[in-house]
């Protein structure tokens, strides 16, 4: 960045100093330091190189018979010869420049199209270590990596409550993070409402017999509303005695993540006693930056990499991209569902989440190393035949995997671009462009 600023300042100084002097005087400049302008020949005070004349009056223009002969014969008209290495060194006749390189002709009509092209011989290309790569066609794929946090699957949480008031006389599960299976005893509770419901059922059975009647059916329905299991009802009918306490069993398997009661506590109907979490599946909440949100969608396949313990990669899908962006982090959350039958994933664990998105099936691709960025402009150097290099502005799209960019305009399939040494070509191109403007 600093070298570019120095170069721009140098060009500005050249234009200011030379604008009023070129037409009337012979000036001398340094090919490496264009800010050096002298009215007499000599050496550059910075690098010691010999100053080269800026020959504004030597551009040849054929006149008279020679021009008419060239036009009649159909031959291309040579306007002048220029140096490929020393900016501003031009002649009316062929020969070698001050650095011993052959000067190349500039034909009529080529000044505007080729004035920024750079001609370099094979030996110099090798010394500059210029490398090129082909512009290819292929899909545009992009991988996003972000951090995710393992969380409970909210769809598999269950609260343990009762539909009657009662006193907890015994807690079979008396600590959090206890694993329970479906049918395991959780607690024993004494409830006057439940005890009376049992008595009503027994009285109805004794009065109406085994066949049952309306009272039996009504009392049985009340027991079912209290979530009394069919096995308990059968045992109640066989024994003929009501139980003072009721043994509550786990309705499903899970981990006790909350325990809200202690032994002897009086519980109201609807109050939470336990909260169970089924960890056979978990959620991963991945943070997605705003700029990456267009490439994430529901149902997208992702891979989650876990570095805890043994490295493991688990495939999952995006269940939902939450329609909200956090104010502080400026990120949205993508909810990912993962299987966790062995309990390897623990809630609260950090994981590495990777999204793969294909943005285009077929696109023009250019290596990232070939692009020179300056503000809003992106420039590449196209390698032409005969050691010529053309600077060209390109419009880039999305970045793809493999260090390539999608090209929206400016390049064609099969063209060869410079991937190493283009900074020297860029400096040469800008210097020559400034000299050409001065000469005009």
Secondary structure blueprint with pairings:
Blueprint: H1 2-18, E1 27-29, E2 37-38, E3 52-54, H2 64-73, E4 78-82, E5 90-91, E6 104-107, H3 111-114, E7 118-119, H4 122-127, E8 131-134, E9 136-152, E10 157-160, E11 166-171, E12 179-180, E13 185-190, H5 192-208, H6 214-225, H7 230-239, E14 245-249, E15 254-259, E16 266-267, E17 274-277, E18 281-289, E19 301-306, E20 312-325, E21 331-339, E22 350-367, E23 372-374, E24 377-383, E25 388-400, E26 404-409, E27 416-420, H8 422-439
Antiparallel strand pairs: 1-2, 1-3, 4-5, 4-6, 7-25, 8-27, 9-18, 9-22, 10-17, 11-13, 11-16, 12-15, 13-14, 15-17, 18-21, 19-20, 19-22, 20-21, 22-26, 23-24, 24-25, 25-26
What does this structure look like?
- Helix content is 21%, strand content 38%.
- About 7% of the residues have low confidence.
- A hairpin with a 4-residue loop joins β24 and β25.
- α1 runs parallel beside α8.
- The protein is of the alpha+beta class and 440 residues long.
- It has a six-stranded antiparallel β-barrel. The protein has a four-stranded antiparallel beta sheet with strand order 10-17-15-12, with no helix packed on it. A four-stranded antiparallel beta sheet has the order 14-13-11-16.
- The chain contains eight helices and 27 strands.
């Amino acid at each position: 960045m600093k070298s570019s600023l120095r170069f721009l300042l140098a060009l500005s100084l050249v234009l200011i100093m030379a604008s009023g002097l070129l037409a009337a005087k012979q000036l001398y400049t340094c090919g490496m330091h264009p800010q050096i302008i002298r009215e007499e020949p000599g050496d550059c005070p910075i690098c010691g190189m010999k100053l080269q004349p800026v020959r504004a009056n030597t551009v040849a223009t054929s006149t008279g018979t020679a021009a008419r002969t060239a036009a009649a014969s159909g031959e291309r008209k040579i306007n002048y010869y220029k140096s490929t290495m020393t900016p501003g060194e031009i002649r009316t006749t062929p020969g070698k420049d001050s650095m011993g390189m052959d000067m190349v002709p500039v034909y009529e009509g080529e000044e505007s199209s080729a004035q920024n092209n750079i001609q370099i011989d094979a030996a110099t290309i090798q010394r500059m270590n210029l490398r090129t790569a082909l512009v290819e066609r292929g899909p545009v794929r992009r991988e996003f990596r972000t951090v995710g946090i393992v969380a409970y699957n909210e769809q598999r949480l269950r609260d343990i409550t009762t539909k009657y008031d009662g006193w907890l006389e015994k807690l079979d599960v008396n600590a959090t993070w206890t694993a329970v299976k479906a049918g395991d005893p959780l607690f024993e509770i004494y409830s006057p409402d439940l005890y009376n419901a049992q008595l009503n059922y027994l009285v109805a059975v004794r009065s109406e017999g085994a066949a049952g009647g309306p009272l039996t059916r009504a009392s049985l329905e009340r027991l079912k509303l209290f979530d009394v299991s069919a096995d308990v009802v059968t045992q109640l009918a066989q024994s003929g005695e009501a139980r003072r306490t009721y043994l509550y069993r786990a309705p499903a398997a899970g981990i006790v993540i909350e325990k809200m009661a202690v032994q002897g506590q009086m519980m109201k109907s609807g109050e939470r006693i336990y909260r169970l979490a089924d960890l056979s599946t978990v959620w991963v909440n991945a943070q997605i930056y705003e700029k990456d949100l267009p490439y994430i969608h529901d149902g997208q396949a992702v891979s989650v990499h876990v570095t805890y313990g043994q490295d493991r990669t688990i495939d999952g899908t995006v269940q939902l991209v939450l329609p909200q962006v956090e104010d502080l982090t400026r990120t949205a959350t993508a909810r990912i569902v993962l299987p966790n039958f062995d309990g390897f994933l623990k809630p609260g664990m950090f994981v590495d989440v990777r999204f793969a998105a294909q943005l285009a099936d077929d696109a023009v691709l250019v290596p990232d190393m070939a692009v020179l960025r300056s503000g809003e402009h992106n420039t590449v150097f196209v390698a032409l035949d005969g050691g010529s290099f053309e600077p060209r502005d390109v419009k880039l799209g999305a970045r793809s995997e493999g260090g390539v960019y999608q090209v929206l305009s400016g390049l064609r399939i099969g063209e060869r671009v410079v991937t190493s040494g283009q900074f020297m070509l860029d400096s040469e191109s800008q210097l020559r462009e400034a000299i050409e403007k001065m000469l005009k």
